[in-house]
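quick one, 75 residues, struct below
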Amino acid sequence: MTTIELRETRHLAVGDTLVSVSGGNYEVTKLARVGRGIRVHYLADDGTAGRFTAAPEAVSRVLSDGHDTPARHVA
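---
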């Protein structure tokens, strides 16, 4: 069963799938520290690449397979 969980930006990892409120899916392709924030690079369902910068404690909606995964930190 696939569920949506809320995860802080600092716990995102390459390969995670972000879900927008409107239902779009975005695969995380790269994470990088930028000053005090984290830049998240992603690939949309239609193949369009994009990026955004968020605070480490900002919350994103992430697809989860229902299994507990250990916290992963961006270095």
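The chain has a mean pLDDT of 88.
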